[in-house]
Amino acid sequence: MYASREDIGYDFGDDSKVGSKPIKPNPNIDGGWAWMIVFSSFLVHILIMGSQMALGILNMEWLEEFNQSRGLTAWVSSLSMGITLIVGPFIGLFISMCGCRTTAIIGGILNALGWILSAYVSNVHYLFLTFGVTAGIGSGMVYLPAVVMVGQYFQKRRALAQGLSTTGTGFGAFLMTALLKYLCTEFGWRDAMFIQGAISLNLCVCGALMRPLSPKDLSEKYVVRSDSEENQAKAASHSTETIKSNGMTIKSNGEEPEKKEEAANEEVLGSVQHIEIGGKSGSGRSMYGLRILKTVSQLTVTVRKGFALWYSSYFGAASLFTNRIFVAFIIWALFAYSSFVIPFIHLPEIVKQYNLSRQDNVFPLTSIIAIVHIFGKVILGIISDLPCISTWNVFLMANFTLVTCILTLPLMQTYVGLAVICALIGFSSGYFSLMPVVTEDLVGTKHLANAYGIIICANGISALFGPPFAGWIYDITQKYDFSFYIAGLLYMVGIIFLLIQPCIQKKQPKEESTEEAQV
């Protein structure tokens, strides 16, 4: 059912040499520093995604403090979650220009600033700016590099590595729920957010651990992935294919434009170096000016290269959007994430409505989701890495289970029934660890940052509108039932797109080959 990017016939311009084999592969790929990258990503998921999953605690505090409607107050949490993911494509541009490490460190500072400023707001509208926008953008600048770096450092055990790193979401939801509940009880929600902002500065440490791989190591990793002779033949043929656009024939790998650009860049730097050498006899002030000019020229070259890669991924001849299965993946992401977010935001209110607060205080339902979510990610990652198992099929089965739970949840009005459904939601939502793996299989390592940025952007739109929509439905009907039903049905539409596109994609090559034979 699942076709990789080689089978689909898309080539996004990987400049690695498929025919050559590395003599000495980097020991840090699938080992060594790769596990430090997993640890760093694990902490990022605890501090960012885990704290966002615990926002239901703060949401109740904001309702009491500002006395606003549930729909309006839910926008604070939705903005934070949504913007974290929506900024993905733009963070991909930052990564292309500055690298994952620098992007993550800047994001850590911005995220902490957003939490701290939120402790001093006077109404809920200021929270939209300080917590929703500022902390949200900072979270996005750390989250995407954390996912991309794991994908770069692992080849053989990608699903397991992503599963281990993303278990931080489950651990974080469990820990942050308990922490925020304790801090709000002891110090109030304002001091709780200030303390959380100080804790979030540890994101800068996580970013510092993201040591980049050299381009040579990345190309070697790609060669290892293409060691099958069949894939080598396909990749070699696809790299020489041309794409006809507007009556012009353009090389799909885009080698010649890159060579011309590199030659122009080298000419600029060479001229600056020549001026610097020729001016050594000049004054110290002139030499200092030349060094500044050289630094600016190098920075300009880096920015141009990063922007060219980012632009070609979205708007070039070999755009990511020419991959129909990837487009179906985006449509699925537009509906999927809200079905997971809505329970976290509104479950505390549902428990209160059903008079189950006493049982929920002993063991919160959101903590059940978080704990089982940890095991779900690891187990689904291990299963997906088995040679006889298709990652795509595991991904689809988990989605079917989750949408069934979302549609069933309103029917449960006892603590035991809700606990069972929440446990199933936690386990099946472990498919989040497979999303980077599926994305990398579709577009390759080189375009993983931009492609996954698009996917999480679609998830962000889903998270942005999901909880406020559920709150708005409650304000009208005084029930959350219809919110879950509508979210589940939209989620099912996204899954249907995932099922239809691979079938269409398989039929098209057969039709094209038949037409060529007739000609």
Automatic annotation (TrEMBL):
<feature type="transmembrane region" description="Helical">
    <location>
        <begin position="325"/>
        <end position="345"/>
    </location>
</feature>
<keyword id="KW-0472">Membrane</keyword>
<feature type="transmembrane region" description="Helical">
    <location>
        <begin position="365"/>
        <end position="383"/>
    </location>
</feature>
<feature type="transmembrane region" description="Helical">
    <location>
        <begin position="450"/>
        <end position="470"/>
    </location>
</feature>
<protein>
    <submittedName>
        <fullName>MOT14 protein</fullName>
    </submittedName>
</protein>
<feature type="region of interest" description="Disordered">
    <location>
        <begin position="229"/>
        <end position="265"/>
    </location>
</feature>
<dbReference type="InterPro" id="IPR036259">
    <property type="entry name" value="MFS_trans_sf"/>
</dbReference>
<feature type="transmembrane region" description="Helical">
    <location>
        <begin position="33"/>
        <end position="55"/>
    </location>
</feature>
<feature type="transmembrane region" description="Helical">
    <location>
        <begin position="482"/>
        <end position="500"/>
    </location>
</feature>
<feature type="transmembrane region" description="Helical">
    <location>
        <begin position="102"/>
        <end position="120"/>
    </location>
</feature>
<feature type="transmembrane region" description="Helical">
    <location>
        <begin position="75"/>
        <end position="95"/>
    </location>
</feature>
<feature type="domain" description="Major facilitator superfamily (MFS) profile">
    <location>
        <begin position="37"/>
        <end position="506"/>
    </location>
</feature>
<dbReference type="GO" id="GO:0016020">
    <property type="term" value="C:membrane"/>
</dbReference>
<dbReference type="GO" id="GO:0008028">
    <property type="term" value="F:monocarboxylic acid transmembrane transporter activity"/>
</dbReference>
<feature type="transmembrane region" description="Helical">
    <location>
        <begin position="415"/>
        <end position="438"/>
    </location>
</feature>
<feature type="transmembrane region" description="Helical">
    <location>
        <begin position="390"/>
        <end position="409"/>
    </location>
</feature>
<keyword id="KW-0812">Transmembrane</keyword>
<feature type="transmembrane region" description="Helical">
    <location>
        <begin position="192"/>
        <end position="210"/>
    </location>
</feature>
<keyword id="KW-1133">Transmembrane helix</keyword>
<feature type="transmembrane region" description="Helical">
    <location>
        <begin position="160"/>
        <end position="180"/>
    </location>
</feature>
<feature type="transmembrane region" description="Helical">
    <location>
        <begin position="126"/>
        <end position="148"/>
    </location>
</feature>
<dbReference type="InterPro" id="IPR011701">
    <property type="entry name" value="MFS"/>
</dbReference>
<feature type="compositionally biased region" description="Polar residues">
    <location>
        <begin position="237"/>
        <end position="252"/>
    </location>
</feature>
<dbReference type="Pfam" id="PF07690">
    <property type="entry name" value="MFS_1"/>
</dbReference>
<dbReference type="InterPro" id="IPR020846">
    <property type="entry name" value="MFS_dom"/>
</dbReference>
<dbReference type="InterPro" id="IPR050327">
    <property type="entry name" value="Proton-linked_MCT"/>
</dbReference>
<feature type="compositionally biased region" description="Basic and acidic residues">
    <location>
        <begin position="253"/>
        <end position="263"/>
    </location>
</feature>
